[in-house]
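Severity: low
Component: inverse-folding endpoint
Summary: output formatting inconsistent between runs
Steps to reproduce: submit the following structure tokens with default settings.
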């Protein structure tokens, strides 16, 4: 998991979050799929960026696993991505607070769709343990004050 603060918080009435996701099948067996993922969440205007990388292991009946991997016709997002986001949201929220920046909403990827699906497969998400934070700030006012002294 990585988080970067690009700018101080702006007094913005509307802040949008862009999500970029990459899912890659690593292993396939009957009743089990192992999917590698990279989930990148950025803000518009560009204030912060979060990236979570890890492995999702799905266990269950093959038809239910396939349903998790299919794109939702309304959102164009696989249900698996919703489950991954649910599991990494808390870490993203905590990292955003450490960086003192905005955090993405918990229901950003239509979490309600999972409850409607009726899928009983177990999904285990393992994000990489390493947490990196960066702040890329240029504070010109403080620099000028120090030069005058």
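Observed output (run 2 of 3):
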């Amino acid at each position: 998991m990585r988080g970067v603060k690009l700018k101080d918080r702006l007094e913005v009435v509307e802040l949008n979050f862009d999500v970029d996701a990459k899912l890659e099948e690593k292993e396939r067996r009957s009743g089990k799929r192992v999917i590698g993922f990279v989930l990148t969440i950025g803000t518009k205007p560009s204030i912060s960026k979060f990236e979570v990388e890890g492995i999702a292991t799905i266990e269950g009946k093959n038809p239910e696993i396939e349903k998790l991997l299919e794109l939702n016709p309304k959102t164009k997002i696989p249900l698996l991505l919703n489950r991954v986001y649910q599991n990494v949201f808390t870490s993203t929220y905590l990292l955003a607070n450490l960086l003192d920046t905005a955090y993405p909403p918990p229901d950003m990827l239509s979490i309600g769709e999972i409850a409607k699906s009726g899928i009983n497969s177990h999904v285990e998400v393992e994000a990489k343990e390493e947490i990196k934070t960066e702040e890329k700030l240029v504070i010109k006012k403080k620099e000028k004050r120090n030069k005058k002294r």
